[in-house]
Amino acid sequence: MALSPEEQAKLKQSYERRSNFGGKHYSGNKKEKLSKKKKAEMAASGEKPVKKSKVQRKLGHMTSNERAELFNLKKQADDLFIANSRIGHKESNHHDGTEYSKGTKSDIATPGELRVAGVHSTDTWKTYRKRVDTFLKFAYENFGVKTLEELDNPTILGSFLESHISKNSSAKTIGSYMSGIKKLVEIGNSDRGFNVDMSGLLSDKSLYENRFLYKKEDYRRGKTIPAKEDESENKKQKPQNGYTLREAQIIAKHAGKLFSPREQALVEVFTYGAPRADEVLGIKWRQLDFGSNRVYLDDDNQNKNGRIRFIELPEKTMETLRDIWDSGIAGNNKETRIWGSKMNETDVRNIIKDACASGKVGYSALHDFRKANNEYIRREVKSGRLTREELADRTMAHVSIKDKNGNMPLNPIVNKVEIRYRKDEKGKSRPYKVIDNTVKEPLFTREKLLAMSDKMLIKAYMAQVLGHNRTSSVNPYDNG
């Protein structure tokens, strides 16, 4: 169905550099980069561009020499991360995309440890660098550390962790810092670029091992709607976490009203495809397959840990995207990013904030749309629109996607595993695994999937939708 004249007018407005939408949080006005001419005019008039102050960067208490020393320490870490980057960049920036190409996923770590060597995506890069920079600033201010070699001391880590414990930081926050610190030590001991031995920093495992772990009840994502009293049964209901499917649909509808079909489709992609924010912003027109209603996230650095994957969208959402393309308003270059050519993550959040306010829905994080996706898939199954056979076929399609070398890294050949059952002390039948080292087989097969219970088959499929192999990855979105 073609776009209406009103929708076309809004779409044109969305693609203008200065859309002037008038939203409280999102105007659609792209920040202008200062041209050389504008910079010269500002210099002549004595006007200075707005920059973050030392106070805003939390460096106002330092002398110029101290700031220089801290900058040099952070640069050492930056150089080390660049040397171990598996990120291939087409743009010319401070990352080197020619010497360090994306690696494979064959070097998977053991459970509870870092999953892959090096850094594979730009989003992961940013997270690690933020965590490490905070840690380096602490080490410099409290221990006078000026070089990475001086970090070879577990006392520094212990003091850093205690500082967060005293601030009541969550296990998730401290765990995130530990991931960044472990990655710094790991790449310091690698053989790419240059080596910096910081292994002593992690030598006292009692500081962090089996600490700062999630409890089962902590596995929830996003906002929590307090449990309400069920008057009919006089008992507590479960609290809800994240957006419900209905809330997500309301947000999408109001994004279309406030802005354009482009922004409405953006919210629908989050709702029905459950991608990460950086994945969405990287989507290009050529990645859309209107025949299969899939979006192939196949660009370098687009996905977490370099995992190849695709997302599935309803026909209605794909029709909207086709109408936008057919209108010609988006141009004719299929290498153009649909949303990322103009928006960043802050813009996306601001679009959601305005749509939430308009639809009277409580605002929450972008990742909370995964709860709505969970509900959407379960409704499709319950209604019979998605059968067991289709679940198995869709799961196999996800794990059978090939990389650039023609391999299927999501479905490796493994030792055969047989599930057997035995009774526990209460007489209840419990499954356990028997591994046969003499027989090799694919990790996933259609027969294995169809042999699963309904619950486990749904989780196996949903894990792939979320971009994971572990079915436990579904748990945070399965509550409420």
From TrEMBL:
One of its GO terms (biological process) is DNA integration. Keywords: DNA recombination, Plasmid. InterPro entries: DNA_brk_join_enz, Integrase-like_cat_sf, Integrase_catalytic, Integrase_SAM-like_N. Residues 114-184 form the Integrase SAM-like N-terminal domain. GO terms for molecular function: DNA binding. It comes from the Bacteria. Residues 258-372 form the Tyr recombinase domain. Residues 7-19, 88-105 have a biased composition (Basic and acidic residues). Residues 1-59, 88-107 are annotated as: Disordered. Pfam families: Phage_int_SAM_1 (PF02899), Phage_integrase (PF00589). This is Tyrosine-type recombinase/integrase. It comes from Paenibacillus urinalis. The lineage of its organism: Bacteria, Bacillati, Bacillota, Bacilli, Bacillales.
